[in-house]
Write a structure and sequence with these properties.
The protein is an alpha/beta fold and 314 residues long. The protein has a single domain, classed as Ribonuclease Z/Hydroxyacylglutathione hydrolase-like (Metallo-beta-lactamase, Chain A). It contains eleven helices and 15 strands. Strand 14 and strand 15 form a beta hairpin. The radius of gyration is 20 Å and the shape is globular. The chain starts with a helix and ends with a strand. It binds zinc ion (ZN) (2 copies).
Amino acid sequence: MKNLLAILMTAVFSIAAQAQQNDFKVTLLGTGSPPPVLKRFGPAVLVQAGRETLLIDCGRGCTQRLFQSNVKLGGFDALFITHLHSDHIVGIPDLWLTGWLDSPFGSRTQPMRVVGPAGTKAMMENMQKTFQWDIDTRVADQNLSRAAVGINATDMGAGVVYERNGVTVSAIEVDHGDLIKPAFGFRVDYDGRSVVVSGDTRFSENLIKHATGVDLLVHQVAMAKDELLARSERVRIILAHHTRPQEAGSVFARAKPKLAVYYHFVLQGDQSVPAPTEKDVEDATRTTYGGPLILGEDLMAFAIEKDGVRQIGK
Ligand SMILES: [Zn+2]
Ligand SMILES: [Zn+2]
């Protein structure tokens, strides 16, 4: 009997320790870009820190990936938007309305909180107008709560944009191109640990400044073969708005995160020149950076612990 009790107590303590270790968790919900492929859905990152469940961007398929991560669609505290390019936000109506449904996977009970750059509030108001028929009909027909389909949206600037339950979210201004302003990355701090998500940016000194010493740095990457770059204006424009692997390597080498992870792969090709592979991205990064690096995949997850960052999913 005594032995059984000892075994039980050990189990309880080990579960408690596990919970403690996993109390700051980052899941890559989507690591793709506009190409509509199944392997990489649109950019979206889930950050679970203490009692807070936060989303950064909501690209295509964010709803499905959140469901796969066992998070209720109505169960997140806030959505943060890096910028208003469609590939980063096109999943919002699905998440918002499906999360409102009276169902085991939805059931949001309060307005959805959205924080994003200038234009976010107007976009959310217009989105509500777009879906007015659905909202009115379901309120009348299914008795769904009109309050719970509301959206509490805020336009933000750089700096601290959210503070709750010991979790701080800061917007970091990045450089996504002269005509694509404003654009932000985000830093989430909790209990002396941190993650930075780059959003879309060219090589950015400001991102390095705010990411220096961070535990986990989640960064976008864009690449095309030289042959294609030489003859395609379209591809040159896209690459000029993003960070290439060699440049991202320099960002990692200077910011020195405990772990660098790629998400939002923008790999350009056409009918005659194939897009670079993940191996090409890794090799190019290694010309400027020798530290810890993971090429992210959808649903890969990481625990940010006191003594380092550990991959826990996939
Ligand atoms: Zn963009
Ligand atoms: Zn993008």
